[in-house]
Design a protein that fits this description.
- This protein is mainly α.
- It has one domain: NusB-like (N-utilizing Substance Protein B Homolog, Chain A, Orthogonal Bundle).
- The chain has six helices and two strands, in the order ααββαααα.
- It has helices spanning about 5-25, 30-40, 55-80, 95-110, 115-130, 130-150; strands spanning about 45, 50.
- Strands 1-2 form a two-stranded antiparallel ribbon.
- Helix 1 crosses helix 3 and helix 5 runs antiparallel to helix 6.
- It is globular, with a radius of gyration of 15 Å.
- It starts with a helix and ends in a 7-residue tail after the last helix.
């Protein structure tokens, strides 16, 4: 798959991963069952009869498994980047899913440049939120990226 084909498939995988993380949080469904469900019904690129880019299935599964497996490390890291007095539990579940998936990529997917990760998850955030939430997600991911990938931001 060429880079021009892979980029939209990875973008679709990120969006699906955020949706899956949200679904898992509200339903209590496990990661493997969620991966199977999404692979069977949601990753082919069809929504209400309209054809969109299909998601990169392996990338989707990596984000989902990785985020779940490292969540105990991701949440305290994210919490350190919140404003004083804010708790991760107070944040909207979709925003938490975006932040967790984005941070997972920043910490564990060094093959993807930090700026790409941040831009991709900002695009996901824009699909769900208006300006304030997107600004918040940008600020948290940018701060986390500067810690997790200091070399990417060196002058």
């Amino acid at each position: 798959m060429s880079e021009t084909q892979r980029a939209p498939a990875r973008s679709a995988a990120r969006l699906a991963a955020v949706q899956a993380l949200y679904q898992m949080e509200v339903s209590g469904q496990g990661v493997e069952a969620t991966i199977r469900e999404f692979e069977s019904y949601r990753l082919d690129g069809k929504i209400e009869g309209e054809r969109l880019h299909g998601a990169d299935r392996a990338f989707f599964a990596d984000i989902l498994r990785g985020t779940v497996e490292t969540q105990a490390r991701l949440d305290p890291y994210l919490a350190r980047h919140l404003s004083a007095g804010w708790k991760l539990a107070r944040i909207d579940a979709t925003a938490r899913a975006i932040l967790r998936a984005g941070l997972y990529e920043l910490m564990r997917r060094s093959d993807v440049p930090a700026k790409v990760v941040i831009n991709e998850y900002l695009n996901v955030a824009r699909a769900f939120f208006g300006g304030e939430e997107t600004k918040f997600i940008n600020a948290v991911l940018d701060a986390a990226a500067r810690d997790a990938r200091a070399d990417d931001f060196a002058v």
